Structure formats: C-alpha cells, structure tokens
TrEMBL record:
The keyword Metal-binding applies. Its EC number is 3.1.4.-. Its cofactor is a divalent metal cation. Coiled coil: none annotated. GO terms for molecular function: metal ion binding; phosphatase activity. The keyword Oxidoreductase does not apply. Residues 3-188 form the Calcineurin-like phosphoesterase domain. It is an enzyme of class 3 (hydrolase). GO terms for cellular component: cytoplasm. Gene3D superfamilies: 3.60.21.10. This is Phosphoesterase. Belongs to the metallophosphoesterase superfamily. YfcE family.
Length: 242
C-alpha cells in the first residue's frame, strides 16, 4: 500500500515545509512552490528531491517567466514585494525547473488514478474554485480519475463527487482558513487524512527581514501567518494575487 503525502502552496516558506515530518512512498505537489516568502531555494530543492509528481502554480509561472506583479493591495502587493527577491536568489537551473513544471499531470499511484492541477482542469493555473459541487462536476466531465488533487485557494477541501474525489490539502506556507499551522494531507489505505503541524513562524518572519523586504510587507506577512489568514484580519483571495 502506498502512503501519499500531498502538499500545495508552499510559497517559499521553508520553516513551514520543513516542519512536515512524515514518511511517504509518494509525494504530490499541487503548485505554488514560490512567492510571498523569502526562502525559495530549499523549497524548490525539496520538491525536486521528493516530488513524485509536481505541477506549476500561477506563482511558479510568474516567477519563472519574470512577470512583474501588478500593483495593488493585499496578496498582490505582497507578491510584488517578494518576487524580486526570488529573481535575485534563484539559480538558472531552479528558474528552469519552475518554468518546465507541467500545468497538469495524471499519474497512477498505489492503484489510484490521480489528476494533479493547481487550479482546475479548465484553467489549470488560475481558476479559483471552492466547494461548489456542480461546478467541479462540470470541470471533471469526461475525466476517468479517482482523485483530483488541487491547490490555489489555500483552504483545505474534500469533495466527494461519487466516482471522483477532489482534495485540496490547504496551504503549507500561507494558510488562509484561520488555522496558522502548516496544512497537508496523507492518503493511505483509501483514507484521506487532513493534517496540521505547528511551525516556527518567528523564523519565517525573521527571514523576511534578512532579505531586505519593506517593513509594510513584513508586517502584512506577520499578520497573515500568525492569524492563518483569517478573513477578519486579511481580506482578498488568491485570485487577486498576480
Ligand atoms: Fe498559492
């Protein structure tokens, strides 16, 4: 039997990613390895080493293609503040790795047919879709898979659509469901386990200072990470982010 670790939306937060201590036979990464945090290198190298399958998120794409973040507030401003740090830090091979990640992957692990995409099959990197069963049914029409693993919303989600289950593990490096702990999923023996782990948020914030990010962006990150992105303290969606 395979034990699968599913992670998404790491967002250059190495303190959060390194806090996940699980044994696994296979690892699925549903996109957004980078942006928002300031430690992309260990995050990318971890994915390169451990991922059985990984797909490209909208932020991986924007960093790899050197797309300047649009000006704005909230998440968009935070991406604008942290993206240039990535361009300073990343080596060509790491930029190439992000650029070459497929936007959609279908694999079979432990007898399960799994589709991996960051957003939805209709718009693999960018579509932001929460718990809307009929919309998901529509997006999965014609696909013969047992599991669809997604990211993008930073909210854990489990949708049972009969033949297919849609799983979003939530975000490792920037949770937005009001729980500040790093989120991930373990799939084993046909059981889907949503897990959380406390990590060193102080270190993530300290690393923002080290990398010369503006004070407002550090304060915004601090508020976001400490609150787990609770809507009362931080408004906006991933859809605003680029
Ligand atoms: Fe994300």
């Amino acid at each position: 039997m395979s034990r699968i670790l599913l992670v998404a939306d790491i967002h250059s937060n190495w303190s959060a990613l390194s806090a996940i201590q699980e044994d696994f036979d296979a690892c699925i990464v549903a996109g957004d390895i980078v942006d928002y945090g300031t430690n992309p290198i260990p995050c990318i190298e971890w994915v390169r080493k451990n991922a059985t399958v990984a797909v490209r998120g909208n932020h991986d794409h924007a960093v790899a293609q050197r797309v300047a973040a649009r000006s704005g507030a909230g998440f968009r401003a935070l991406a604008a503040a942290t993206r240039p740090v990535h361009w300073d830090l990343l080596r060509p091979s790491q930029m190439k790795y992000l650029a070459r990640l497929p936007v959609m992957q279908q694999v079979e692990i432990g007898g399960l047919k799994i589709l991996v995409v960051h957003g939805t099959p209709r718009d693999p990197m960018d579509e932001y879709l929460r718990e809307d069963k009929s919309a998901w049914r529509n997006r999965l029409e014609g696909l013969d898979v047992d599991l669809v693993c997604v990211g993008h919303t930073h909210h854990p989600m489990y949708l049972d659509l009969g033949d297919t289950q849609v799983i979003n593990p939530g975000s490792v490096g920037q949770p937005r469901d009001g729980d500040a702990r790093a989120a991930y999923v373990i799939i084993e023996n046909n059981e889907v386990m949503f897990k959380r782990v406390t990590y060193n948020i102080e270190e993530s914030i300290k690393n923002m200072r080290v990398n010369g990010i503006d004070r407002w962006a550090i304060e915004l990150t601090e508020q976001l990470l400490r609150s787990g992105g609770h809507p009362d303290s931080f408004r906006g969606t991933e859809a605003d982010a680029q």
